[in-house]
Write a structure and sequence with these properties.
It contains 11 helices and no strands. It is an all-alpha fold. It is globular and about 75 Å long. Keywords: Cell membrane, Membrane, Transmembrane, Transmembrane helix.
């Protein structure tokens, strides 16, 4: 029972992050399972089986709050399912750890772009024209493959790429990526169940991750709805940078205490940019409220002046 509660808490935290930022459920959950001693294939299989439930809960929650673009879900999810099935089959036979540093370098660059663009030069609604299927299909295929082989990667690959285009509202990027993850979870789970037919999955751990994720899904979807798009963009960008910097630091095998210093610098810069963005958003809202009040007062003065003229 204690193990179940621990993994339920882990699933809750992972889904809260994933549902709010469009990434990190698989990365967080897989890390927990690997720490518990599961093999990479079993850890990834367990996470994807849990995602069969969490992705539905997350998708329904995002849909209710208007965070889903169904065109993106279909064009991204179907190729993603194909990639996930192939990735699950590959991971069950051979590890793909050598590709992690290269992919992390690309993701870190994308994360930096997203982080700085939303913090310094935010997107405007007139630019939100939608994403071409020519980008969505190959993106889904690559993201699905990476997700299955890495125990997580659907969000970290798909979300920053779509955010970096500047053509889709951040909350709809997050909601659509989270919703399409159900297709990836089904395809990856099918691939793992076929390839790992003799392996013993821990349904207790799967159930814990599933329960925690389902509980967190509505809260995460609500946060996306009410939090301004600039803050979501900076939060997502910082998460991408920090997560992939960790992968690169581990690959380089820096001597202690260098890794801690790297993480501290990144975290400090991220927090500073986030604080700056929050302050800008608050000031913009205050100015907007003041303009509305002035407009309302001017309207009342005109209404009072008209009878006086009569």
């Amino acid at each position: 029972m204690q193990a179940f509660l621990i993994f339920a808490i882990g699933g809750f935290i992972a889904q809260l992050v994933d549902g709010s930022l469009g990434m990190a459920y698989g990365v967080t959950s897989t890390t927990i399972l690997l720490t518990a001693g599961l093999t990479p294939a079993l850890a990834s299989a367990s996470v994807h089986l849990a995602e069969l439930g969490t992705s539905v809960a997350s998708g329904v929650s995002h849909w209710k709050f208007g965070n889903v673009d169904w065109k993106i879900v279909g064009m991204l999810g179907v190729p993603g399912g194909i990639g996930a099935f192939l990735g699950a089959t590959a991971l069950s036979n051979v590890a793909t750890e050598a590709a992690a540093p290269w992919m992390s370098t690309i993701l870190l660059a994308l994360g930096l772009y997203v982080l700085l663009r939303f913090a310094i030069r935010p997107l405007r609604r007139r630019r939100l024209t939608g994403v071409s299927p020519k980008l969505l299909a190959p993106l889904g295929l690559v993201a699905g493959f990476m997700d299955a082989t890495g125990g997580g990667g659907w969000g970290p690959v798909a979300t920053p790429t779509l955010l970096s285009t500047g053509k889709v509202e951040p909350r709809k990027v997050i909601g659509s990526v989270d919703t399409s993850e159900f297709i990836i979870a089904v395809a990856a789970s099918l691939g793992f169940l076929i390839a790992l037919s003799d392996a013993q999955l821990s349904w207790l751990l799967v159930g814990g991750l599933l329960l925690g994720g389902v509980v967190a899904a509505p809260l995460a979807a609500y946060l996306v709805r009410i939090v301004p798009m600039r803050i979501i963009g900076v939060g997502a960008g910082g998460m991408i940078v920090l997560t992939n910097a960790r992968t690169l630091v581990n690959a380089i095998d820096l001597p202690s205490p260098s890794p801690v210093l790297v993480y501290a610098v990144i975290a400090t810069a991220w927090i500073a940019l986030l604080a700056y963005t929050v302050r800008v958003v608050v000031n913009e809202r205050r100015e907007f409220d003041n303009l509305e009040e002035e407009a309302a007062e001017a309207s009342q003065d005109e209404e009072v002046a008209e009878p006086a003229r009569g």
